[in-house]
Amino acid sequence: MFFAFERIGRGRYRKALAGVAFLLTAMAAVSSSTAAPDPALSSGTITVVLDQAQVIKVPDGVATLVVGNPLIADISIQPGGLIVLTGKGYGVTNLVALDRGGQVLAQKVIQVQGPRDTLVVYRGVEKESYSCTPTCEQRITLGDSAAYFNAVLGQIGSRAGQAQGGAPASK
Predict the structure, then answer these.
(1) Could you tell me the residue range of the domain that residue 129 belongs to?
(2) Does residue 6 carry a pLDDT above 70?
(3) Tell me: the pLDDT tens digits for 32-67?
(4) Cβ-contact 23, 6 below 8 angstroms
(5) Which of these, 20, 81, 100, 144, has the minimum number of CB atoms within 10 Å of its CB?
(6) Beta-carbon count within 10 A of 24 CB
(7) Do residues 88 and 127 share a domain?
């Protein structure tokens, strides 16, 4: 879901963000009541949200797992026939499960979608992302303007450095 705001007064901008945040929260509550797709490799397309993980059961006898494009999705193999699938970038790729003899046991499409709680603000060609659960706060996501992305990332790094007892992150 994308929104565009014109340059308006700071108070009106915050009121607009608050209204959109309420709308997004209401829509998330409605969409969360729908059934989630079956997280097994035996099902159809696997949908995962960008920067989120999903646990998936793999078929018995799997010796090799291949992700078509690891820039879109990545897997981590866990004990007990499980993998953790993480959305890394927008788009579609595939996952192939092979047995020891190289036979294909399963082949599924992986679709990575954007987060549902994100408000996108365009200021001309500049793009900023905000996570609105329940209030809108800065977040960085793929496609944000370089200046905005780097400023928010710098704040996150500085805060993490302070939390670990080290010096603030430098550029």
Answers:
(1) 10-32+116-155
(2) no
(3) 433 343 456 655 899 999 989 999 999 889 999 999
(4) no
(5) 100
(6) 22
(7) no
Residue 64, strand partner residues: 98
What pLDDT is attached to residue 165? Answer: 80
Handedness of CA 113, 114, 117, 122 (dihedral sign): negative
d(CA 74, CA 131): 23
**Domains identified in the chain, total number:** 2
143: left (phi over 0), alpha (psi -120 to 50) or beta: left
70 and 84 co-located in one domain: yes
How many degrees, rounded to 5, is the angle at CA 113 between CA 109 and CA 90?
A: 80
Q: What is the pLDDT of residues 86-110, one digit of tens each?
A: 999 999 999 999 999 999 999 999 9
